[in-house]
Design a protein that fits this description.
258 residues
Amino acid sequence: MKALTTEGQQSVNVVAAKYSLAPATVESLLKAIIQGNGTMAQFNIPELGGSGQWMKGGMTMVGDMFNNSLKSKVDYICNELSELAATKVLFEETDDMTGRERTVTGETGSYSASWWPSVFGNPTSSGSQNNFRYAYFAPVRRLVIEENGKRSIYDTKHHQISGISQQQGSGNSYRFTSQDGPVDIDSLQLISEPGEHRQPTPEIAYDVTSTADLRSEPTHSPQDIIIATIEKLNVLFEKGQITEEEFKAKKKELLERL
């Protein structure tokens, strides 16, 4: 199960106070955004008008479709939470029975499932040595590094990270391998400054193939959300609430995301 980290709970409380919402409402919306890979969300939250959908840079829909003030509020909150999810560790995976942090074992080795932002998913490649570890996420082009308990996030751009080597000399200097050859860490764009993060204590190991069975929340793929959004647009078009040109333009934009 997912539990808020201390940093995550503080962030949720700040956003909740800012928008005069219950922390549980913000937490539920945050989980929906993470399930949508940080770019979309499908939710059913009473305090936000019930059933609704959000798409980054696209359309926001709420149960009260004519409540433009609520739509704007949801859009602002979702964009803020999306940014938080991409730069902070807000949730940690815990054992369902004991609440202890869980270690996942996969082909890339054993790792704690909580030391990088949940929205990135599982790493494409990862590794560790001494007090240093890294995880690379190809779909979002992000490299997360933790050294001596401090975490940094980099934009890898076109580089596809597959390994790492430590340079000789004074201080620690790391060079990554990619499809184009060696990549110095200093050549990558820093997205998130180093921040304190507690070192996890591995206690219970699970096979990575079993993690899906432990999820208690229903999941909605980005494709499901896009199709559902198109269906709602069609209803609006049939009721005459949007024009045919608006419907076709938005439908084309959504289909291009599939």
